[in-house]
Each structure stands twice: as C-alpha cells, then as structure tokens.
C-alpha cells in the first residue's frame, strides 16, 4: 500500500517518522523516529511522563498521532493516504488492524466477569468468528503455554497478579498477532511474581515474536532485548544495543536515569 | 500466666499444630432486651389488628381472589411488565445515544430525558389519551407532501396503548440515566482492552461493558420496577383500571374501604416480594467473578433461618457448639 523504500533490509514492522502527540497544550511526544524490524525485541525505558506509554498506545491507535507518520508492517496507522491527503480510517478498519497487534497493559485489564478461558476465547469468537470448541481448544493450549493449564475456569479475581498478567498475554496471543506491545507489564506486580511473567515474555521472544516492551526491568532489557531506547521529555535520547546503552551511556540524562534504576 | 505460656505454640512448630481458639464470646444482653421489647410491641400490634372487628377480615377473604380484583391484578402486572420493558429498551438506547461521540444523538437524548423527566407522568398519560384531539389522524408520508398510510388516532391509541406510552416513555428517561451511570461505572481499561483485541465499539459494549454495568444497573432498576407497580394506579385518570382502581370500584359500592385496601396492599406485597427474589438471583448472576458470589444472599438466608441472632445470643452460657 505504502512504499517504504527499503531495498537493503526487510520491511520494518514499525516505522515512526517524527511522531508527535499533544494532549491539548501538553506536548507528550516531540518527534519520535524509530524502526523495529520483524522478530526484534525493543525495550523502551525512561522516567515516568517521558511519553513511552503514549508512544506504545499510538502504535495501535488507542491514542491518535498529532503529527508525523507511524507505519505498522508498511501500513499507515489510523489513516489512509490518498491523493496527497490523509483520510481518517473507519472504526471497522481501525479494529481490523488492531487484530494484528497484541497489547498487554500494566493493570492487566482482564474481563472480570469472564473466566480465564473465556477471556481468551472472547476475541477469537466475536471478532474472528471461531467456533466455541475451537476457541476453547486454543485457549487451553495458550494457557498451557503460559504455565496456567489448570486455571481454565478460574475467574480473574481468584488469580494472583502474575497469573492475571499471564492470562492477559495469552489473551493477546489468541488473535495471532504479528506484533506485541507491552506497557509496563510487570510494574503492578509483587516482586516475586515478576519472574514468571518475564519468563513467558522471554519464551515469546525466543519464538521470534516482534515485541516492543516499555519496562523498568533492566535485566530483561539487557538479556532479551535486541535494542534499547531511552526516552525522556517526549524524545528518543539514546538508542542502541542494550549492553552499549546500559554500560556506556553517551548522554548525561541517560547516565543519570540509569544510575537511579540500576 | 502459666496457662497462657502453655497454650502458646513452640517456635517453629507446624502452623496446623496450634489448638483452635476457645474463647468466651462477647455477651450481648442488649439483644435479649431488644427481643423482649419488640415481642411485646408485636403482640400489641397483632392484638390491635386481628381482634378489632372493624378491620372486617372476612371481607378481605371474600374479595381477595374475586374476579374484579384478579383482573385488576392482571392489568397491573401487564402494564408494569410492558412499561418496564419499553423503559428498559428505550433507556438503553437513550443511554448509548447520550454516550455516543455523535453530538446530534447526544443532544437528542439529552432533550428527551429533560422533557420526560421534567413533566409529571399524569400529564403525559392524559396527553397520550387525548392525542386524537390534537391529531385526529396519524399518517406516514413526506413532510408537507403526500401521505402513504393514514390511521384514525382513536383506533390506534386506545386506553391501553395510551397507558403504555405514558408509563413506558416516561420510564425510559429514568432508565436512561440508570444505564448511563452503570456504563460509566465500568473502568475505561475494559473498553481499551476490548478495542486492542480488535473488537468494535458495539461488540465491546455488548459483550464486555454492559454485563459488568448490570451489577450497578440492577438495584435501581428493581426500585423502578417496584415503584412502577404502584405508579400504574395513575391510569385511573384516563379511565383505565388496575388493582388499585379495582378495589376502589368495589369499596365505592360496599363502603368497606379498609378491608379492600388491605386486599390491594397484600397483593402489592406479594408482587414486590416475588420481584425482590428475582432481583436477588439476577444480582447473583451478574456478580459472578467479583470474588464474593452470593455473599449478601447467604447472609440474608441465614438471618431468615433465625440464626442471625442465635449465633451471638446462643453463646450466652459460654458453650460453643
């Protein structure tokens, strides 16, 4: 649809060009340029209010980009370019593109009136039209994969935070996304429960899932991430290989931030 | 002191090894005083009501299941059920309109609610009944142009339809606010999670938001239904009849208002009780997953079984069973 002009490498899964986002007069993103290749795991770190969550939410159009261009798998997010003009996408078109992007939230946002299995079955059945039996089989397999094979019929309120977050990951995977977005997936968890969630995410990365992870888990970023981005004040301050950024930060702001979290 | 140290579990012992606590329960002499006082008052009430011949209890029995009363009862039930159905469906539509991003729909719904909540039901009932005097015929067609079909208003809007329109359309305005409050009570993250999965606004509303909103919507809707049960008696102003009007018509002839009003009151109590039980089951259904399934119900039935009081008071002697 849109020519991304990338003869030398693969087409990037996510391409951001000068992405800006304002909430009224509050400028949250001030020109983000980023590329995420297929099968890449990109971790984004930065102080709170730096715009990392907003950037993530722009990728699946939960927040609208105010200026610049954002592409997912070669397609412009939220708009269609036609005759030199941008046309807003219809709600159904936005929804169709969101199917291919899984999102995991800091506060899990599981559906409390549905069991773990039903949470996972919901989108495949209502959006994709899977039969109940197929959806249930897939839910069982996904729960097995995140280590909760025995929790099919548990309601979220009966699960620990870590278990809820793993159900949320399984729910996102049920739509077979080509890109997974994680918005501080372990920030609301007790320290002892963080490991299980990170292990599931590590498994996903090993299976070749393209992932963008907003996180404060420097260990995960260093070991699993292919790239690390440090954001502050709505801009990318520094980006590179996780080891380089963590051990030899170039910018003063990165050094200050890392000295606090490490 | 020695007894205390003996009963303390040794450090490092298995948690299940400690002896279960056997303590003397707090005494509640106040409860017993209350029981005695209330029992005396209740006996006085029963005596005053059932030994007073002017209550004329045989008349209550005579008319309790009479033809007129039962047909009034049937109308009360029918009007309540249909008016609440119109109210619930209309209220849901109005609430969704009010919350929609479309400014036209929002203001239309706002205007409807403003008008129908702002005028008395009795006025609305009379208005619908006299619709024919304003519009002798009702037709479908192009404004200022030809009409395709035409109806005689008096044939289309009979008393029963006027009652339904008056009660139902008024109720829709109240239900709209109840449903809106319910929808707003569901955390925004739920809609976001549904959107992120590729669900449309309508799918998210129907499958995710509304089922959770029901927990908040049901209790006030129960109130509305019970209130509607009694509001239906307003249809007397347009000459229709239901339970209340039925008993009125009887006591205006036999001059026995008290026993007949007791008949009506007893029926209203029966209906309200049945509705409350239905509401309890609905609440239990929509409360699933909240971690406290039927907690209220369990407590209530325990109390009804008479153990609510007995649990504390029964320990008066210090023996725990």
How helical, in percent, are the residues of chain A? 25-40%
Which structural class best describes the helix and strand composition of chain A?
A: alpha/beta
Helix content of chain B: over 70%
Mean pLDDT of chain B: 86
Note the overall shape of chain B.
flat
Number of H/I helices of chain A: 9
Oligomer: heterodimer
End-to-end distance of chain A: 43 Å
User: Helical stretch count of chain B?
Assistant: 15
Give the neighbour order of strands across the main sheet of chain B. Answer: 1-2
Shape of chain A: globular
Contiguous runs where pLDDT drops below 50 for at least 5 residues of chain A:
1-8
End-to-end distance of chain B: 27 Å
Radius of gyration of chain A: 19 Å
Biggest interface: chains and residue counts?
Answer: A-B, 32 and 23 residues
Q: Over the alpha carbons, how many angstroms does the gyration radius of chain B reach?
A: 28 Å
Largest sheet features of chain B: 2 strands, antiparallel
Number of strands of chain A: 12
Overall pLDDT confidence of chain A: 93
Kindly state the number of beta strands of chain B: 2
**Estimated structural class of chain B:** mainly alpha
Entry summary:
The complex is a heterodimer of chains A (262) and B (321). Chain A is built from nine helices and twelve strands.
Structure notes:
The complex is a heterodimer of chains A (262) and B (321). Chain A is α/β, with parallel strands linked by helices and 262 residues long. Chain A has helices at residues 52-59, 91-98, 116-126, 132-145, 161-173, 191-206, 218-223, 242-247, 252-261, and strands spanning 14-23, 26-36, 41-45, 67-72, 75-76, 79-82, 85-88, 101-104, 179-183, 210-214, 227-232, 235-240. In chain A, the strands form three sheets. In chain A, strands 8-9-10-3-11-12 form a six-stranded mixed β-sheet, with helices on both faces. In chain A, strands 2-1-4-5 form a four-stranded antiparallel β-sheet, with helices on one face. In chain A, helix 3 (116-126) packs across helix 4, helix 3 runs parallel beside helix 5 and helix 5 (161-173) runs parallel beside helix 6. The longest helix of chain A has 16 residues, at 191-206. Chain B is flat, with a radius of gyration of 28 Å. Chain B is mostly helical. In chain B, helix 4 (67-99) packs antiparallel against helix 5, helix 4 packs antiparallel against helix 12 and helix 10 runs antiparallel to helix 11 (201-231). The longest helix of chain B has 33 residues, at 67-99. In chain B, strands 1-2 form a two-stranded antiparallel sheet. Classes of the chains: A alpha/beta (262), B mainly alpha (321). Chains A and B meet through helix 2, strand 8, helix 3 and helix 5 of A and helix 10 and helix 11 of B.
């Amino acid at each position: 649809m849109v020519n991304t002009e990338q003869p030398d490498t693969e087409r990037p899964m996510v391409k951001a060009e000068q992405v800006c986002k304002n909430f009224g007069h509050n400028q949250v993103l001030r020109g983000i340029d980023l590329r995420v290749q297929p099968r890449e795991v990109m971790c984004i770190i930065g102080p709170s209010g730096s715009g990392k969550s907003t950037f993530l939410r722009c990728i699946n159009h939960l927040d609208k980009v105010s200026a610049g261009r954002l592409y997912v798998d070669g397609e412009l997010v939220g708009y269609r370019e036609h005759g030199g003009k941008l046309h807003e996408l219809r709600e159904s078109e936005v929804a169709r593109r969101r199917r291919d992007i899984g999102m995991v939230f800091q506060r899990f946002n599981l559906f409390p009136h549905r069991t773990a299995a039903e949470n996972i079955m919901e989108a495949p059945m209502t959006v994709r039209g899977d039969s109940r039996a197929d959806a249930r089989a897939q839910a069982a397999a996904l729960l097995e994969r995140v280590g909760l094979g025995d929790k099919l019929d548990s309601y979220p309120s009966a699960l620990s935070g870590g278990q809820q977050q793993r159900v949320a990951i399984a729910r996102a995977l049920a739509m077979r996304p080509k890109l997974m977005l994680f918005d501080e997936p372990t920030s609301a968890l007790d320290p002892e429960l963080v490991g299980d969630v990170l292990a599931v995410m590590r498994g996903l990365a090993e299976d070749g899932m393209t992932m963008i992870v907003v996180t404060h888990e420097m260990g995960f970023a260093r070991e699993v991430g292919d790239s690390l981005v440090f954001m502050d004040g709505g801009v990318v301050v520094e980006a590179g290989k996780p080891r380089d950024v963590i051990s030899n930060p170039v910018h003063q702001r990165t050094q200050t931030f890392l000295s606090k979290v490490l | 002191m020695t007894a205390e140290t003996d009963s303390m579990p040794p450090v490092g012992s298995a948690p299940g090894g400690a002896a279960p606590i056997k303590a003397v329960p707090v005494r509640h002499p106040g409860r017993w005083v209350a029981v005695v006082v209330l029992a005396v008052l209740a006996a006085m009430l029963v005596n005053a009501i059932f030994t007073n011949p002017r209550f004329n209890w045989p008349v209550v029995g005579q008319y309790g299941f009479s033809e007129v009363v039962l047909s009034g009862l049937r109308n009360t039930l029918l009007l309540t059920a249909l008016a609440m159905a119109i109210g619930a469906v209309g209220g849901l539509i109005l609430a969704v309109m009010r919350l929609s991003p479309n400014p036209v729909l929002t203001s239309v719904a706002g205007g409807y609610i403003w008008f129908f909540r702002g005028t008395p039901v009795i006025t609305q009932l009379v208005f619908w009944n006299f619709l024919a005097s304003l519009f002798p015929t009702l037709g479908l067609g192009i404004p200022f142009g030809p009409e395709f079909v035409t109806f005689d208003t008096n044939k289309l809007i009979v008393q029963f339809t006027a009652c339904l329109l008056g009660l139902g359309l008024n109720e829709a305005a109240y239900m709209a606010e109840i449903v809106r409050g319910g929808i707003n009570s569901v955390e925004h993250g739920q809609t976001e999670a549904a959107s992120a999965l590729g669900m449309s606004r309508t799918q998210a509303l129907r499958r995710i938001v509304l089922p959770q909103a029901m927990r908040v919507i049901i209790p006030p809707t129960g109130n509305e239904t019970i209130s509607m049960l009694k509001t239906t008696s307003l249809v007397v102003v347009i000459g229709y009849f239901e339970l209340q009007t039925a008993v009125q018509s009887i006591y205006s002839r036999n001059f026995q208002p008290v026993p007949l009003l007791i008949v009506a009151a007893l029926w209203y109590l029966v209906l309200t009780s049945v509705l409350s039980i239905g509401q309890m089951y609905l609440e239990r259904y929509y409360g699933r997953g909240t971690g406290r399934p039927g907690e209220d119900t369990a407590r209530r039935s325990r109390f009804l079984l008479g153990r609510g009081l007995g649990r504390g008071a029964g320990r008066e002697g210090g023996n725990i069973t």
